[in-house]
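Here's what a typical entry looks like (Protein kinase):
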Amino acid sequence: MSSAEVPSVGDLLAERYRLEEHVGGANGHRQLWRGVDVLLHRSVAVVLRSPGGEDAAPTMTAAVAASRTHVDSMVDVYDAVDEGRFAYVVREWVNGSSLRGVLEQQTLESGHALELVASVADAVAALHDGGVTHADLQPGSILLSEDDRVMVTEPRNEPGNTQVEDVRALGATLYACLTGAWPRVVPAENTGLPDAATDEWGRVLDADKVVPGLPRRLASLTADLLDHSQTPPSAAELAVELRGLAETGGAEPAPAQATSVLGAISLGRRGAADASTPPVGMKRLAVIAAVAA
């Protein structure tokens, strides 16, 4: 984006959102700014996209869908404006770290990884119910707030992206949480992580081959999600499967407790969103404190 096309520091958008600091995204099409809502006196994130108009239509549609989701793990979307030369989405500003920042320093214990990705899957399922895809699921788009929330940033809803691709990206995110590397079989921009190790045929190594002692059931599920020859579950079904595994630390559940993503499973965990309340059942991730220190 050139300075002639988009606003700069100090500019006021929609007579309400003052841009304070450019914090990311200098690829010519998308920028992230920290701003201030001068009417409500609160910090906001402003995601600028250039150009606006028809090119920004998927982004605007996704913003509307995200604003209507009712899950704690999706950032609150406050506004979406298309000014022609550029368009922007205004969402809550999350103080904390991205998942990428955490994984650049250390991996997550399997139980924490399962809970985290299950929360992300909740948000993705809500988007899919609203008729849009996220299209940018990777460690940089998942935020870990200072008040213990797992937050998924606003969706991109890129043309051609499918719900199946979103679910595979959830599998790649789980793999990254466990191993600290990103499997290239799931394309993503700027993950900030090294590529996952592969065998002599170029296949991504199963997670338990990278992390000895990892429960085989967990490694198998992760491998299945990355396998393009298999049809993955829906995001809602996957959330249930992940929480079932989290209860056993990633090991195979007892037969009477086992759940399957192949059957019709009702998520049944959605309620009114409250941005100030941590997701039900989430344990504190000790790594957040380590990163913030």
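Residues 110-129 form the longest helix (20 residues).

More examples are in the samples folder.
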